[in-house]
Amino acid sequence: MSAPLTDTVFQSFNVPFRFPVSFTNGLFNIDNVTFRDTLQARDVHKVHRFICIVDDGVAAACPTLLDDIRHYAATHSSHIKLARAAVVVPGGESIKNDDELREHLHQIVMDARLDRHAYIVAVGGGALLDTVGFVAATAHRGIRHIRVPTTVLAQNDSGVGVKNGVNRYGQKNYLGTFSPPYAVLSDYNFIQALPDRDKIAGMAEAVKVALIRDRCFFDWLEKHHSKLAKFDPDAMQYMIRRCAELHMHQIGHGGDPFETGNARPLDFGHWAAHRLETLTRYTLRHGEAVAIGIALDARYSVLANLLEPGADDRICRLLDRLGFTLWDDALLQKDDAGCWSLLQGLRDFKEHLGGDLCVTLLHELGTGIESDRMDESIILNAIDWLHYRTLPLAA
Prior knowledge:
This protein is 45% helix and 15% strand. By secondary structure, the chain is α/β, with parallel strands linked by helices.
């Protein structure tokens, strides 16, 4: 009896993921043991080694931070050890485009002789967290990574996610991995040091997740818009935490944490936002671009008879009151062939999903709906509507 041409054996196993997301004040104050206890969580009898990569904007805004980290490690030296002095690198989107800097960070990790039980701690905004997360995930096939998000956007959205990535070939996050962090430690004190523009930008993700998942949270944002616009600490802290909780629930319970399927509800408004970031060469903050993308897709949802008329105005009024500008001239840009440049964002989105388009639109405030098509003529109509809103007579 001859052997079969093919003999298939299936391998199957499950890998559980669990990591803490802590909200605190004064993370590197010597009497705050949150950081120390996080490093010790798996082995209290070991001295745990770590390095810190710090966003230069954070270092400038918090001039004692590097000394605070060094002093904290020295105070708790029976439990943790700083493997080398903190490394300060440029923050913002530029870091995700810098191949030489990423290579330099890998070299630092090697020179510090970090192993898979050591920690790489990133202190900064979302772009730095993405980049350092990519370095951590690819050194030794994965070194424990702790995120210390310092912006509204990072604390309420990207910092609690499971993705990291860097830009390549003109595409945002073309290189990256799904690699959950070891822990996320959010220090509200960092928010107070942010420029107003960055405080505002991060609120876009709160509006986004409220629109697709939590009508009560949207109503809360409307009710407290004046406090948020003035950056009231209590309102900001509640907004950040609730937004983070909703993102975490979607990632953990939405059924597709590593995005193997097509639906990506947390990317509501993002097909246009990512393209706008590229078209403006990242002069638009991510949150600013997301706010425009939300407004555009809200209007599209009304025009496509998915969302009740007037809801788009209501959404835009909230974004206006929070301090967003819901227009950029890049929306009118055309390429050399005369085609609307923004529409390339849909094609990029479709390609990123494996060829099948799946865009989240709005069914009602607090409820998203997945669509496998968007009509380009309706998109252009929505752009015209947004443009009209910016004219003096529209106000």
